[in-house]
Amino acid sequence: MNGGEDSTRTDTRTPAPVEKPVALTVAGSDSGGGAGVQADLKTIEAHDAFGTSAVTAVTAQHTRGVESTHVLPAAEVAAQLDAVTDDFDVRAAKTGMLATAEIVELVADRAAAADFPVVVDPVMVATSGDRLLDAAAEDAYADLVSEATLVTPNADEAAVLTGVEVGGRECAVEVGERLLATGADAALVTGGHVPDPSEGPGETVRDMLVTPDGTRTFERPRIDTDATHGSGCALSAAIAARLARGESVPEAVEASAAFAARAVRYHLDVGEGPGAVHHAVEVRNRAAREATAEAVRGVVREFVEADVSALVPEVGTNVVGATPYAESVGETAAVEGRITRTFSGVKPNRDVRFGASSHVARFLLACREFDPDLRFAANCRFDSDVAAALERLNWPVAEYDRGSEPEGVKEREGSTMQWGARRAFEAARSADGESSGDGTPVAVVDRGEVGKEAMTKVVARDGEELAERVLALSEAL
């Protein structure tokens, strides 16, 4: 015997291969990693597909711009395409920077012979407005677009492809219909290039999807940032990855547009320029769900141990935690049924789950529009005693008056929470012009109205900070 060891033991493990659909990107290389092939491969992987590539050009660039470009011979691009398609079961492809008429024609021929969907991102015009292709290459795009499952021009590129200047919804639809008439299966006119004349300039970003079945509009508030380099690459790569996974064009576009908006809002602060879009933003957000829920449980345990009964309102208290890049109620964890008072203290009615809170979650999400670092909130009682305690703590406190709520807010937004948070933070930011704070209050007071209990909402950047603040308020009572 060998000391009781199992004689059948082996030092090798059984392999466990994972199957993933394969997506192909045909685009230029971006040494800065924010756009091009690098952005495409990051995005494809983040959308649970396996990324392959055919590089059309090598660029020396960073977050401030392009230093130089070297275009590969079309024969080398063809060799890469052959290498990938001969070995991999490619389920979808996308194009980016194609550089020359010869490469555009090559890719158009391959797209015509492909048995998988092809997303054409016509990289033709720089952000500065400069044309990136010569006239021959622009003309060659007509054949490529005709083979596209989806073509995704912005307004400048749409004007090159169709001759139509996009100046509103009707123009965008006309662009889409003209692209369909050339042979494309669908067209997505992207970004903030489709203004609504009835609004102020640039308040809303619209993507217009035009298919033979009709038109769909995807809207979102504009994000005030210059860190948009590579957002078009990320959008088209996400669509290609989702098509490779078997989604329909409308499904893939809707999900990918939401992803691209989140990737821009929570961009990465790298380099000396505006930064780079966050290609893995949704993966990181999903990965933080369990840690967020556990942080909420930790706050609840502290509330129970400290017995915060004096702060629990009639409707109960809830503790809400948002994932780092949360944009919806479903991405916030809270106590199902809230925390209520008992004869022996306080207790949660049930466990923590995502989407369990409505009012406090909406309030927190609205606060994050002003300070995205805020991730936790709890609602507490408010009366004259709490007001005195807040004054003793000398916290920055904001409030809103429900009597000032404009007509129709509840109908449009579902509750007063978002409007109230905006009013409170706008007031706090205005007052902060005369102080040394950052304009983010620790607590927001809602004095209520008939049928609506007055409330104090405490906000924080993490669960530990939220627990400390609520317990400090409890002790100050």
From TrEMBL:
It comes from the Archaea. CDD domains: HMPP_kinase (cd01169). InterPro entries: Aldolase_II/adducin_N_sf, HMP/HMP-P_kinase_dom, PM/HMP-P_kinase-1, Ribokinase-like, ThiN. It is an enzyme of class 2 (transferase). Residues 1-12 have a biased composition (Basic and acidic residues). GO terms for cellular component: cytosol. Residues 30-278 form the Pyridoxamine kinase/Phosphomethylpyrimidine kinase domain. Its EC number is 2.7.1.49, 2.7.4.7. Residues 1-35, 427-447 are annotated as: Disordered. GO terms for biological process: thiamine biosynthetic process. Residues 296-471 form the Thiamine-phosphate synthase ThiN domain. This is Bifunctional hydroxymethylpyrimidine kinase/phosphomethylpyrimidine kinase. It comes from Halorussus limi. The lineage of its organism: Archaea, Methanobacteriati, Methanobacteriota, Stenosarchaea group, Halobacteria. The gene is thiD.
